[in-house]
Amino acid sequence: MRLLDASGEPINDSNVAQDEFEREGISKLKSGKNWHESIVSEKGKRHLRVVTPIPVVLGKCTMCHENYKNFKQGEPIGAISYNIPIR
Ligand code: HEC
């Protein structure tokens, strides 16, 4: 599981989409979807990959993430990326 930025200004630059699946997922979430999934093959094993949105959950989030003030309520500023091996 990884925490991703969708605001364009991450605190930690390594928290950005790392591959095509995550980039496509963030773009879908920003256009209003609340779930992006795919079943992929990694080293011969099947994995369920999912990206879900994180809005500005609390006003206090802006204490550290100043840029979140520029987003509308409910708009995703981040995402959680899951990668789960399946049988
Ligand atoms: C006390 C300061 C603080 C508060 C309050 C805070 N964050 Fe963060 N947030 C951080 C730091 C520091 C990181 C980078 C963590 C890392 O990767 O090491 C981070 C990372 C993130 C990321 C990943 C992208 C990035 O910027 O690196 C998201 C998404 C995020 N926070 C969302 C939220 C949300 C939503 C809230 C409110 C519920 C919140 N944060 C409140 C300090 C804070």
List the helices and strands and how they pair.
Elements: E1 2-5, H1 20-30, E2 36-42, E3 45-54, E4 78-85
Antiparallel strand pairs: 1-4, 2-3, 3-4
Bound molecules: heme C.
Heme C is lined by residues 3, 5, 10-12, 15, 54, 56-58, 60-61, 63-65, 78.
Keywords for this entry:
87 residues, mainly beta, elongated, binds heme C
Short summary:
The protein is mainly β and 87 residues long.
Domain unit count? 1
Overall helicity: 10-25%
Number of helices: 1
Specify Rg, calculated over alpha carbons. 14 Å
Strand content: 25-35%
Bound ions, cofactors and other small molecules, one mention each = heme C
**Class from secondary-structure proportions:** mainly beta
H/E topology pattern:
EHEEE
Strand order of the largest sheet: 1-4-3-2
Instruction: Work out the number of β strands.
Output: 4
Shape: elongated
- Mean of residue pLDDT values: 96
Spans where pLDDT lies below 50 across 5 or more residues: none
Major beta sheet summary: 4 strands, antiparallel
Distance between the termini: 18 Å
Describe the structure.
This protein has 87 residues and is mainly beta. Helices cover 13% and strands 33% of the residues. The protein has one helix at 20-30; strands at residues 2-5, 36-42, 45-54, 78-85. The protein has a 4-stranded antiparallel β-sheet, with helices on one face. The longest helix has 11 residues, at 20-30. Heme C (HEC) binds at residues 3, 5, 10-12, 15, 54, 56-58, 60-61, 63-65, 78.
